[in-house]
Specification:
The complex is a heterodimer. Chain A is built from 10 helices and 9 strands. Chain A is α+β, with helices and mostly antiparallel strands. In chain A, helix 3 crosses helix 6. The relative contact order of chain A is 0.20. Chain B is an alpha/beta fold. The chains are: A alpha+beta, B alpha/beta. The interface between A and B is large, with 45 and 40 residues.
Chain lengths: 270, 240
């Protein structure tokens, strides 16, 4: 199963956009994890932006960046949104409300609490009625999203926007799910190569003994990769930034690996 | 796990189809589960979408949904040499977004129409091939009104329709799982369920809402699922 890559969006501690991050991923610029992006996606209306969660702002900003590079009309793409925890900030606020005697939940909070909140806002923002899926696969959420997006591209022969994202939940939920930092990544994939396609991803599922999980050299980036489900994309991003071919293995389910072969077809945008 | 609110487990069928089609697996266990919890009980109450009585889908006096909890799973595999007449098949699926509002359906029903038309196209059958529509039919004012318009637009006003949420309540993320099992039972037993609790059909409705169970031949049917975030999925089931 293979797809062509036409755009990347990236946000994380010390990673403020795809062009700026490539030299950091390659170890040519220093990784500074203290530098935290403050994303403001432009597709949200001012009132939506004011009420939006960090999760929505991070995921939509990464999606926008990838779409801008891909030079495709955003309403022409189906979408896959993948996140382990989704709207944990909203869940926390609802739990606080449920812990009062009135148990009065704000209606706005409730409809923002669905796992597909980011996907819903994206479809409204770009006015796309094309199919959209939102999924969770715990630590393998990036892999689950990649499989869902790639199978969609191959089955329907249509481009897909994949967005994977997770934000550390606020305490006390954080104690149960201590993610290493916020992270959002977006890929625009197409079935056939386009003039702007810069990499081909070949994706397969293998038994765990078939390879060794790909990791990051920089200890800070490795901590981020290991501790945020969306950041499991980091070795793939690094391979794309390097401009050479690479054969990678990502943790998938208990006894499975996802193999991702990266094959460059032209220098990626920077 | 697909999580698109009340279309979640219907969309799991679409995902499974793609996994089978691309050869990543030979069979899949597909379904949905949702348990009662305070977040949904008080959440739907905050939107004033919950009825104080058992829900009455499509009724002129319907006043909201009843929340249910359920789990329903089925085993699906590729059509192959061992597939025999009488087997139940997922013949098509359609997915769409409303791109309108996070919790209110598109007033024209355009997202629902796209999902139903998508399932027909996927199965490569005309709308006239469908003999029954298993409605999302939550019994909220907005859902049932919009879905009625959408169904009439795609299938005309004569096709029999009903909602089974009077029996099960709205089982949210599990709806696709259990209502697909109900769809399979309809096909297996040549049976169309009536709409429990509904007494007087909304006079503004244009489609044909079944109030009572009917025993009659049925080979193909459509099931609808619509979720918050404007996320829609229609499944087309049939007998081989």
């Amino acid at each position: 199963m293979q797809v062509n890559l036409n755009g990347i969006g990236l946000l994380g501690p010390g990673l403020c956009g795809w062009p700026e991050s490539q030299q950091i991923l390659l170890g040519k610029n220093i990784y500074d994890k203290e530098m935290l992006p403050k994303p403001f996606p432009s597709i949200l209306q001012p009132n939506e932006l004011r009420r939006s969660s960090e999760v929505v702002r991070w995921s939509l900003r990464a999606a926008e960046e990838a779409m801008r590079q891909a030079q495709l009309k955003p309403d022409a793409l189906a979408t896959v949104f993948a996140s382990s925890g989704g709207e944990t900030e909203i869940l926390h606020k609802i739990c606080l409300a449920l812990n009062t005697s009135e148990r009065a939940i704000s209606p706005t909070l409730f409809h923002h609490s669905v796992h597909n909140a980011s996907a819903g806002y994206w479809s409204i923002g770009v006015q796309s009625q094309l199919p959209s899926s939102s999924l969770s696969c715990y630590d393998s959420s990036f892999c689950g999203g990649l499989i869902e997006a790639a199978t969609f591209v191959c089955s329907h022969q249509t481009p897909v926007l994949l967005v994977a994202y997770d934000i550390p939940p606020p305490p006390p939920l954080y104690a149960a799910r201590p993610l290493s930092g916020p992270f959002a990544v977006a890929f625009v994939m197409s079935p056939a190569p386009l003039p702007q396609s810069f990499s081909i991803l070949k994706i397969g599922i293998l038994d765990e003994g078939a390879g060794t999980v790909s990791t990051m050299k920089d200890p800070g980036l490795e901590m981020l990769r290991d501790g945020n489900p969306a950041a499991r994309a980091l070795p793939v991003l690094t391979a794309i930034a390097s401009g050479g071919p690479a054969a990678l293995f990502l943790n998938y389910l208990d006894n499975l690996l996802l193999s991702v072969d990266v094959m460059p077809c032209q220098p990626c945008p920077n | 796990m697909v999580s698109t609110a009340c279309s979640s487990s219907a969309k799991a069928f679409a995902s499974a189809s793609r996994l089978l089609e691309t050869g990543l697996c030979d069979a899949a266990v597909v379904g949905g589960v949702d348990s009662l919890c305070l977040t949904t009980l008080y959440g739907f109450a905050s939107l004033e979408l919950e009825s104080k009585n058992p829900c009455r889908p499509g009724d002129a006096e319907r006043d909201g949904l009843s929340i249910g909890e359920a789990a329903g799973f089925v085993l699906v595999e590729k059509c192959q040499a061992s597939t025999k007449p009488g087997d139940i098949a997922l013949m098509g699926y359609g997915e769409s977004c409303d791109a309108y509002h996070m919790s209110h359906p598109h007033p024209s029903g355009s997202g629902a129409i796209l999902a139903m038309q998508g399932a027909l196209k996927c199965a490569n059958v005309p709308s006239s091939a469908i003999e029954y529509v298993h409605l999302h039919g939550t019994a909220t004012k907005a859902n049932d009104k919009t879905e009625d318009q959408a169904v009439s637009k795609v299938f005309g006003s004569q096709i029999p329709c009903s909602s089974t949420k009077g029996w099960t309540g709205h089982t949210l993320g599990a709806a696709g799982g259990i209502e697909s099992v109900i769809a399979a039972l309809c096909l297996e037993h040549q049976f169309l369920p009536g709409t429990l609790n509904t007494r007087t059909v909304d006079p503004n409705f244009t489609s044909t809402l079944l109030l009572h169970n009917q025993e009659r031949p049925v080979k193909t049917l459509m099931s609808n699922f619509f979720g918050f975030g404007g996320n829609n999925c229609s499944l087309l089931f049939g007998t081989i």
